[in-house]
Amino acid sequence: MTATPTASSPRLSGKVVLVAGAASGIGAAIARRCAVEAARVVCADLDEPAARTLAAGIGNDAAGWHCDVTSTTSAQDLVRNIRDRFGRLDGFVYNVAAPSHDGTVVEFDEARFRYELDCGLTGAFIVSKHAIPLMAASGGSIVFIASQFAHVAVGRSPVYCAMKAGLVHLAKAMAIDHAPDNIRVNSLSPGAIATNRLLARHADLDAANAALGPAHLTGRIGQPAEVAAAAAFLLSDDASFVTGTDLLVDGGYATR
Ligand SMILES: NC(=O)c1ccc[n+]([C@@H]2O[C@H](COP(=O)([O-])OP(=O)(O)OC[C@H]3O[C@@H](n4cnc5c(N)ncnc54)[C@H](O)[C@@H]3O)[C@@H](O)[C@H]2O)c1
User: Which atom of ligand 1 is nearest to the CA of 74?
Assistant: First the structure.
């Protein structure tokens, strides 16, 4: 007889979850939520000191390691370290995006376009390529953090819109290929979320909320913890029949 689940049951008990781009904002919230759900979390980021500090703070055997998702050797090292320390991988969240530059394609610097694409999309391919063989031993769940701008475009952000739409479709293609390995692959598309990322265009988060909130049906922007709750669902066995889809966590932004 199986135990009746309760609202307070941790949903990721026994699982090892890698969060790439964990050091700040949404990634840090996802790492924390996964630890609350009893996962052992690997916090990987270009910003190694911040990843280490985060891991020490969330406890539960979390690791804080350096990773540059644009580098094959860095991704290989990361997965080797996960294998050596934990012996398994059950969840992988790809949360990385470089700071976004504004501009039309005419204005955009080509090297910058390639760099943002590398960080936001090619990195998801690189880390997945090396993580899936470890995950395939026991099955698992992959979640790519996309954006509402995968669904509706916005001006002066051609690479951001393209890479996020690419992530959504990459997840669908991978869901088909890796279903036989018992690996589910989904994307999650947040609306505007109160992180430092918004400070590139707004004086503070209150100003960001005032400017961006009305575009959401909720009348406000979201919080990192609201995205993390949805990511924890996709990582958990509660989502065992959910694969190849995109979950909009956007306060209704993309409805109009
Ligand atoms: N904040 C929002 O409003 C919002 C809305 C929709 C989607 N998103 C998406 O959510 C994700 C997280 O957003 P955030 O606001 O928390 O951003 P953030 O900039 O705080 O987090 C991105 C993280 O990625 C890391 N990173 C950058 N380049 C890397 C690399 N090459 N290798 C490894 N790590 C690298 C950064 O150090 C940082 O910790 C991003 O993919 C973003 O596009 C954010």
Answer: 32
